[in-house]
Amino acid sequence: MDTILYLLSLITTGSLAGFASGLIGVGGCFIMVPVQYWLLTGDGLDSTLAIRVAFATGLAVTLPTVTTSALGHHHRGSVDWQTAIPMGIAAVCGAITGGTIAAWLPGQVLKTCFAVLVTLMGIRMVWDVKECTLCPPRQSLAALLLIGFCIGNITSLAGIGGGVVLIPILILLLHYPMHHAVGTSSACLIFSSAGAVGTYLWHGFGVSGLPPFCIGYIDLVQWAILVGTTIPLSVLGVRYAHRCRAKTLRYFFAVLMVVIGAVMLISG
Hints:
Number of helices: 10
Shape: globular
Distance between the termini: 21 Å
Helix content: over 70%
Number of strands: 2
Largest sheet: 2 strands, antiparallel
Low-confidence stretches: none
Order of helices and strands: HHHHHHHHEEHH
Mean pLDDT: 83
């Protein structure tokens, strides 16, 4: 593949993913993974290896990006750490379990899981998200641990940070306002992404046929280019999120997910 096209694709993708991370509290993998997969298979990499590398590298980019976003939201008082920390700890356990399963599943299964999940959650966000501004957030430790464990599994199996699932849960089930759901989601994703990245690193060591400059399933070239764009754009996204109506954020979030999920399903 042409080097200039390769670089421009990653820079554009990283910019959009970083902005989305700060704006709507997600990791941005649902934007990065399709492009990474396309670039890797375009260079002749086996589709199963390509989707695993895309998942692992995207999650490795997510880790510093959501950390930046979470800090930005924390400074604006939009992170509930009493919710984020227990969910995050459970998410690490879930990410290890999901990542171990993902290391043995065929690439087409992983790709389909990614596409279906992103599409359904995008539809769900438009279909039935009703914020209750008068309802206090619900906090049950057992529920938080269960949610966190499930989010961790989804993070590894679907190759996403988990925000596409966690934000609707925080709004619909736990009664969080949109902006606080975004900030708390960003904080929780720090934990789930770290667990998933560690698992993909472990299972990728010694695998043959990976691209040059890989550590485990993480492509260091793609990682460096994407991180260089996602982090500064996530800062911009955080600033814009607190100037934007919650309804606008929700619809932007939903439309983007449906389009990306549909493209992945059709291409598969």
